[in-house]
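Dear colleagues,

I hope this message finds you well. In preparation for our joint manuscript, I am sending the Large ribosomal subunit protein uL29 (Limnospira maxima CS-328) sequence together with its predicted structure, so that both groups work from identical material. I would be grateful if you could confirm receipt.
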Amino acid sequence: MALSKIEEARQLNDDDLSEQILEIKKQLANLRLLKATGRLEKPHEIRHTRHRLSQLLTVERERQLPNQSPA
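The corresponding structure tokens are as follows:
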């Protein structure tokens, strides 16, 4: 699974962005549970999920800041 691009996150509207953040947080919690119980088959998924969450939170923060354009 290739890492997603931040441009994809920037194309989401505010409601979809919040929904995605919540979904990714749930997915990350589930992956951590699987890791703790020894049932996680693909440990790289935790890193990919954290990366996606970071992207979404970055876009959310960019939208909160006034007069700032994305880099």
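For the figure legend, we might mention the following. The chain has three helices and no strands. The two ends are 25 Å apart (CA to CA).

With kind regards,
E.M.
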